[in-house]
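Journal club prep, notes for RB
We'll compare a predicted complex against what the paper describes. Inputs for the magnesium ion case:
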Amino acid sequence: MEKTFLMVKPDGVQRNLVGEIVNRFENKGFTLVGAKLMNISQELAEQHYGEHKERPFFGELVDFITSGPVFAMVWEGENVISTARLMMGATNPKESAPGTIRGDFAVTVGKNIIHGSDSSDSAAREINLFFKEEELVSYDKSMISWIN
Ligand code: RTP
Ligand code: MG
């Protein structure tokens, strides 16, 4: 089953949006298979955002993502990589549609609440960067009955 790496950025954690964001992906029907609240080191930030190394905003981006705890997650489900990107909304909140996470909660591009992998290659790379294999679980919700 397809997996993606999603992360509530430091602004989302500070604004108490972790629950709201988890809720959206749960309600959609995806399965949370790994999660942790953590601080990102300078080294991890530079690796994670390596593709933007030459961009003028790289320094700011690394400073921001290391400025406070993030909530790192791995989600599983059919087409979860592209669907999560749709649910996040456009990178720049001034273009992200209402109803999306960035459209509903963010104003500026530098503080856009959430990160999500943009392809299957980046999902594999980012999951590997943030999680050890034993930190991920595998389960089938339909097999667990809490009521009967
Ligand atoms: P992300 O990687 O965080 O999920 O965001 P994204 O794919 O939608 O956007 P990407 O192009 O990968 O950019 C990474 C992050 O860099 C910041 N950014 N700042 N000042 C700027 O013009 C600018 N452009 C991008 C954003 O926080 C973006 O999420
Ligand atoms: Mg990106």
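Talking point for the session: Residues 52, 57, 61, 91, 109-110, 112, 115-116, 118 surround ribavirin triphosphate (ligand 1) (CB under 6 Å).
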